[in-house]
Amino acid sequence: MMSVAKEIFTSLSDRPKNLSNLQWLHYDDEGSIIFEKIVLQDEYYITRSERRIFELNSDDIIVKAAGDEKNRLRIAELGSGTATKTGILLRAALKYQRGPITYFPIDVSTTALDEAQSSLNYLLPDVCVMPQVKNYVTDDFILPSFDGCTLVIYIGVSIGNSSKEEAKNILHHVYEQLKVGDALLLSVDMCHDPSVLLSTYNDKNGVVADFQFNVLRRLNREFGYNFNLDQFRYQPIWNEHKSSVEQHLQSLCSQQVKCIDQFGEKTLHFDKGETINMIDSYKFSIEEINMLLNITGFTIEHIWNDEHKWINVILARKL
Ligand SMILES: C[S@@+](CC[C@H](N)C(=O)[O-])C[C@H]1O[C@@H](n2cnc3c(N)ncnc32)[C@H](O)[C@@H]1O
């Protein structure tokens, strides 16, 4: 397998330059802090809508996910972050279970997991938090066997940050960790008005832009690059063909960027106007998501959505 350093350099040497296959690079300590600011921006309806769906439906979601009144439940979450919204579901799960519940948050960010653990320990002491610092794209996360129903949560519309192939691999791995009858709760952002979608990733405070620039700062800090951030500008683009908001950094001039690491010195060339696609945010139709779930072994059982039907929270089952 290619090392991360090599994959980064290869992706930046390609034409077009593309780091979207390494979207998790966004979530170092600084990136995780910036993400918490993104969700507070007026333009970022995703978190508000998803939270509202959970507030209105958490009991229903948990009862339907558990499937059978007698089923004991446990919850695992991919890319839990600080688990702020998940707290709403965990509260409903405690009510359903009438006793303690085990929760496995899985995330690349230690900072986010530490915060999730300390806030849940304080707010919901009956939740037994078992964090796993893992990259769910490149590492195997393992759930211990369990004699009840496992609900895997994958929310924050995070599946939209993966290519279709990567999304399939992630869901396939979830499938392998579950037994027949276990459940998956997946949230997706649907394809709708491109101007609304674009503005979600182009907030007036420039926080999403800063989230992208932080990746260049991280490459400078950890991977030996010397990007001059002043020579780039943020440019989000709606790619109709891919149904994705691509978040690019565009070079303002013709320039060389050096990378000095243990393998020596290498140079990247940027033409004036050339861009790096830093991350994709794919938007879905219900047919696409249905197909993705079917080919990875899940069947949709129920969908909750917001007033605009932009965010779909989907309960699917391994049959
Ligand atoms: C869009 S945020 C969502 C956070 C939270 N679930 C929410 O709904 O607000 C994505 C989270 O997934 C984590 N993440 C992204 N890619 C990951 C990967 N490949 N493996 C593990 N965690 C990842 C990030 O650290 C971040 O906490």
Automatic annotation (TrEMBL):
GO biological process: methylation
InterPro entries from the UniProt entry: EgtD_Methyltrsf_superfamily, MeTrfase_dom, MeTrfase_EgtD-like, SAM-dependent_MTases_sf
Domain of life per record: Eukaryota
Domain Histidine-specific methyltransferase SAM-dependent, chain residue ranges per copy: 5-317
Sample GO molecular function, one term: methyltransferase activity
Keywords per UniProt: Methyltransferase, Transferase
One protein family per Pfam: Methyltransf_33
PANTHER family: ERGOTHIONEINE BIOSYNTHESIS PROTEIN 1
Protein name, per record: Histidine-specific methyltransferase SAM-dependent domain-containing protein
Organism: Rotaria sordida
